[in-house]
Structure formats: structure tokens, C-alpha cells
Write a structure and sequence with these properties.
The protein is α/β, with parallel strands linked by helices. The chain folds into 2 domains: about 120 residues, NAD(P)-binding Rossmann-like Domain (Rossmann fold, 3-Layer(aba) Sandwich), CATH 3.40.50; about 200 residues, NAD(P)-binding Rossmann-like Domain (Rossmann fold, 3-Layer(aba) Sandwich), CATH 3.40.50.720. The protein contains 12 helices and 12 strands. Strand 9, helix 9 and strand 10 form a beta-alpha-beta unit. Bound molecules: (2R)-2,3-dihydroxypropanoic acid (DGY). The site of (2R)-2,3-dihydroxypropanoic acid (DGY) has 7 residues, from loops.
Length: about 350
């Protein structure tokens, strides 16, 4: 007697360590062959028909049309990402389809990159890494603002747009740099929580941790601003000309969350006109269609990398494994390691 199988579609080959987890007699797995190239929309639409489980990455759009194309068999969608802006959650919820995602596992990798970009932005990495050894050492050549506390600035303030897990892991990394204060913007629907702030301050030995009443204060007071909020439409271009104009001229802006939160043209202008010192950018609105003539790519004070926040071998393996485990648990009726609450 043959075991009945259910169709599982995987939009990217997840590699030799992870794909075997899907080798089960009750699964018929259809995977896009490439590990590196995105599967086309055409491939996904053709193959998703009749799927019961679907594993995607953040460049695959799981919209009403794709969900409709899959048909009534679809029970679980699992994304190998912490963000799920590419998925029509409302449609899934209406149809009783579960959604898995991969939080926590990438927190440390993204926090690492946030610090790297803060350093790169302040220390002119974009210019200096490419011209060596044409310039001789000179007392004030290529000087930029120092991230760590120093004899001129013995106190340092970190500002966070969004204060979730990654922001707090980034804050933890700033303590050995002598940071003394932390300001953050919180979800306006939840009340400020001074007791929690005091606990975070005590945990890290900071002089203060405070949720700001308005973004003006965050912009004005911070030596480095980390954009680490989700890509919610309500936060579209939260970093705009008005915000950037209020920042310190020696400050740097780091975005390792979603490109839509920062107005790229305003940021390029801020760098060009010296409103702020530099920027460290992992994500850009409109990615991956970012070409050499993009205003931020052209800005020498902008250290820019192509959405590599979670790109460590360990983290990506963990994310892929979690995406598969979410799918399997969701289909077998068990508790997913991480399920989006709808
Ligand atoms: C995510 O998982 O949402 C990240 O942006 C990927 O690095």
C-alpha cells in the first residue's frame, strides 16, 4: 500500500543540510532548483497549484492572487524571515491558513551588522576601504566621529526607532563602547513603561533608558540612530527630511530593518549637505532593484550593503531549519516553533 502524499512547494533550494528534513514518505516536495536565484513568479504560480504547504523567502510575494492560485488545499505558509510584509496575512487568516516565521534566530547577526555599519559610517569606510594605499598618513585626513565614549564626548547616546529584540541586542553591544544613555521610540498604542526602562538601564549599567514622547527628541539627542522597527505602512518614511535635519551633524544613521522606513532621497541630501555625518544602510526602499545611480549608492558617506543582516552561515541555516520545522509542525497539527498570531 502506498502512503498518500501532500504537495509541499519550496521557493528556494535550502541546501544539503536542510532539504533532507523534508524527505518524508507523506511529502511530495517540489523545490525551485536554485539555492541562490529567486524562483520566478511564473514558476511559483505554476507549481503552487494544489500545494498543502508552502515555504517562501522574503522576495516571494504571497498575495491574494497566489493564495487563490494555490487553492483550498493550502494549510500552512512558512517564511524564512522574521518580517512578513511580503505576505497577505489577512488573506491567510480569512482562509484559516497558518503562517510560520523565523524570529529570534537572527537577532544576534543583525545586531552585529548594526554595529558594523555604525562603525563604517562614522569612520568613512566607503571612501577609505577603496583608495588605499594612494594616500599617505596625515593628521586629520579621513577623521570621522568616534563611536565610543572619548575625552571630548564622555557620554554617548544611542537612539532606537523601535525597541524590540534586535534593538536591545544592539544596545548590549554598545555598552563596551561606553554608551551611557538610550532613547527609543515605542509602539504608540502601548503606554510608556518607566519600570521596564529602569530595569534595562540597571541591566546594562546605563545612566538612563527612556522612551521619547516625540521623534524630534530622539533625532536631536542621539549620537547614533538605529532604525530597527518593522516595515509597517504606518512607519513609511519615518526618517524624512524633518527628522534628518534635527539630527546632530556628527551623528550617524543605521538602517538594518526595512528600506521603506527611510526616505532615500532625503537621506542622500542630508549626507550631501552635511546635516548628518554618515549612514550605514543594509536595506533600501525598492530593493533589489538598486543600481549604481541610486542616490545612496552614489553617496561617499553612505556605507551600503545588500540586505545581509542575517547573512551568517549559522543564522541562515537556523532560519531555514526553523522554516521547515514550522511547516512540518503546522501540517502535523503540532505547535510551530514560531507562528504568527493573526
Ligand atoms: C528578515 O528575516 O526579515 C530579514 O530581513 C532577513 O535578513
Amino acid at each position: 500500500m502506498t502512503t498518500p502524499t501532500v504537495k509541499i512547494v519550496v521557493s528556494r533550494n535550502l541546501g544539503p543540510e536542510v532539504m533532507p528534513l523534508l524527505d518524508r514518505p507523506d511529502f511530495e516536495v517540489i523545490s525551485c532548483p536554485s539555492q541562490t536565484e529567486a524562483c520566478s513568479r511564473k514558476w511559483l504560480s505554476e507549481n503552487v497549484v494544489g500545494a498543502v504547504g508552502l515555504i517562501v523567502v522574503l522576495t516571494d510575494k504571497v498575495d491574494a492572487e497566489l493564495i487563490e492560485t494555490a487553492g483550498p488545499s493550502l494549510r500552512v505558509v512558512s517564511t524564512m524571515s522574521v518580517g512578513y510584509e511580503h505576505i497577505d496575512v489577512q488573506q491567510l487568516s480569512q482562509r484559516g491558513i497558518k503562517l510560520g516565521y523565523t524570529p529570534d534566530i537572527l537577532t544576534e547577526a543583525v545586531a552585529d551588522l548594526s554595529i558594523m555599519l555604525a562603525l563604517m559610517a562614522g569612520r568613512n569606510a566607503r571612501q577609505t576601504a577603496t583608495i588605499w594605499p594612494q594616500y599617505a598618513w596625515s593628521p586629520f585626513l579621513f577623521c570621522g566621529p568616534q563611536l565610543s565614549a572619548n575625552w571630548v564626548y564622555p557620554t554617548r547616546t544611542a537612539g532606537f526607532l523601535g525597541f524590540g529584540r534586535i534593538a536591545q541586542a544592539t544596545l548590549a553591544r554598545l555598552i563596551p563602547f561606553g554608551f551611557t544613555h538610550c532613547l527609543y521610540s515605542g509602539n504608540p498604542t502601548s503606554p510608556p513603561d518607566p519600570a521596564r526602562d529602569a530595569t534595562v538601564a540597571a541591566k546594562y549599567g546605563l545612566q538612563s533608558v527612556r522612551r521619547v514622547a516625540g521623534l524630534d527628541e530622539l533625532a536631536r539627542e542621539s549620537d547614533v540612530v538605529f532604525v530597527l522597527a518593522p516595515g509597517d505602512p504606518s512607519l513609511y518614511h519615518v526618517v524624512d527630511e524633518a527628522f534628518l535635519k534635527q539630527m546632530k551633524r556628527t551623528a550617524v544613521l543605521v538602517n538594518t530593518s526595512r528600506g521603506t522606513l527611510v526616505d532615500s532621497d532625503a537621506l542622500a541630501k542630508a549626507l550631501r549637505e552635511g546635516w548628518i555625518w554618515g549612514a550605514g544602510i543594509d536595506v533600501v526602499e525598492g530593493e533589489p532593484n538598486v543600481t549604481a545611480d541610486h542616490p545612496l549608492v552614489k553617496e561617499p558617506r553612505c556605507a551600503i550593503v545588500p540586505h545581509i543582516g542575517s547573512a551568517t552561515t549559522e543564522t541562515r541555516l537556523g532560519m531555514a531549519t526553523m522554516a521547515v520545522n514550522n511547516l512540518i509542525a503546522g501540517l502535523l497539527g503540532g505547535e510551530m516553533p514560531a507562528q504568527v498570531k493573526m
